[in-house]
Amino acid sequence: MCGFVGIVAGTPVAASLLVALQAIQHRGQDAAGLGTREGERFHLVKDLGMVAQAIPVQALDRLAGTAGISHVRYPTAGGASTAEDAQPFITRRPGILLAHNGNVTNVPELRRSLAQAGLHILSQCDAEPILLVLAEELTRQRPSGHTAQDVVQAVRAVCERVRGAYSVVAVLEVDGRETLLAFRDLHAIRPGVYGRNSSGDWMVASESVALDVAGFRRVDDLPVGDLLLLRAGEEPVQLEIGPGDPRHCVFERIYFARPDSIMEDGRVNRTRWRMGRQLAREWQAKGLQADVVVAVPDTSRPAAMAMAEELDLRHREGFIKNRYTGRTFIMPDAATRNAALRLKLNPISEIFEGQRVILVDDSIVRGTTMRRIVAMVRELGPREIHLAIFAPAVRHPCFYGIDMPSESELAAAAWPTEQVEQRLAAQLGADSLTYLSVQGMREVVGGPMCDACFSGEYVVPVNDAERASILLDRRG
């Protein structure tokens, strides 16, 4: 999982790219980068760390150009990251600047086929094989002077050769004009949105909040099965690349996206609110009783508020969150996550003391964070602790861009489905645990989606060799 912003404009874009990128910092804290195109030249700054560390403001002076891409990285494969793994990437033949969000499942296969053509992947980032495949397919059409039809053929070939989930943005010359190219895999698992400002400039981003902060108006989500060619001051060119079969990632709605972002099914905040209502009904059906509902900040707040309203209970802020720590779920190892939790959350004792508390959270992956939260709350003397998760149990790895490990590391995968809530509640030290059912989640979201991490129904098949390679990379 990562986040990108791409802009093509009539004026320099670096400053806008930097501002918009900070709006999606939550999508990646490992590395960041910003690249621009100035005539025939590309400029690039990227490094490890948060946006402010990796792209210092003074670097904008050397990032001239009217088209560019910025990116934040959250790695889901490989060992320790290096600056070379940060996006965007550049290839000189032909000249392309590219970034993506998602995960490529057949990197070893691509590595072999590209090597046979004399192209070598040098980083641990799977944006590089996408870039090299696109470059190879474009030069297969002609060495330079590429047309829109060349791009269509090349992107079709990318969708055939590159498996997994990916939203892609690139800057290159098409039909002799500076162009921002954007497309998604044919299932559109990963998000992407585009918009326009009053000057006729175009932006593509992973979430609509990036458009908001930079003064762009959202036009639509990136089309499924089509590519977009965007040029400053012109209408978009939308071209078909294949039969689209949308299966948008439901975990984006549950955890990753900001609540004020708008996706295909509406504002994320509304979806989380509706999940909280459904969870309340399923919790109430168990005959449980409580006094107060407390969100584990921040993602779960809309669901907790909805749950309290539906159950006619008090909703209270029970934790103070340190705003200067990162998201523990996407931190690289258990030791870092454990140390960060105590920095991140500090409970307010009077909210919990003597109360029957419903703690609402978005998910339980490894279980380590929730176990520590429950232990922290137990010290404050509540009568009961009931865990309510506004997502189903995570029982299967994600191979499409979210770092959900192998079944052996997933807390809910240890027992049969019918035993998970009771057994895991005991292991975590809670009096009860209630997950939102898969059926309830699907009723809330509506329409087809990718929920493989809950259901085990993988949209893009992952063979045994690919699965083994991905899981091996995750172990670093």
Tell me what you see in this structure:
- The protein has 476 residues and is an alpha+beta fold.
- It has two domains: 2-247, 4-Layer Sandwich (Glutamine Phosphoribosylpyrophosphate, subunit 1, domain 1); 259-458, Rossmann fold (3-Layer(aba) Sandwich), CATH 3.40.50.
- It is built from 16 helices and 24 strands.
- The protein has helices at 14-22, 51-54, 107-116, 127-141, 148-161, 208-213, 250-256, 268-284, 301-311, 334-344, 349-352, 368-378, 420-428, 438-445, 452-455, 464-474, and strands spanning 2-8, 31-38, 41-48, 67-73, 89-91, 96-104, 164-174, 177-184, 193-196, 202-205, 217-221, 226-230, 237-240, 248-249, 262-263, 266-267, 292-295, 314-316, 319-321, 345-347, 356-361, 384-389, 432-435, 449-450.
- The strands form six sheets. Strands 3-2-4-1-10-9-11 form a seven-stranded antiparallel β-sheet. A six-stranded antiparallel β-sheet has the order 5-6-7-8-12-13, covered by helices on one side.
- Helix 3 (107-116) runs parallel beside helix 4 (127-141).
- It is globular, with a radius of gyration of 23 Å.
How would you summarize the topology of this molecule?
Blueprint: E1 2-8, H1 14-22, E2 31-38, E3 41-48, H2 51-54, E4 67-73, E5 89-91, E6 96-104, H3 107-116, H4 127-141, H5 148-161, E7 164-174, E8 177-184, E9 193-196, E10 202-205, H6 208-213, E11 217-221, E12 226-230, E13 237-240, E14 248-249, H7 250-256, E15 262-263, E16 266-267, H8 268-284, E17 292-295, H9 301-311, E18 314-316, E19 319-321, H10 334-344, E20 345-347, H11 349-352, E21 356-361, H12 368-378, E22 384-389, H13 420-428, E23 432-435, H14 438-445, E24 449-450, H15 452-455, H16 464-474
Parallel strand pairs: 14-24, 17-18, 17-21, 21-22, 22-23
Antiparallel strand pairs: 1-4, 1-10, 2-3, 2-4, 5-6, 6-7, 7-8, 8-12, 9-10, 9-11, 12-13, 15-16, 19-20
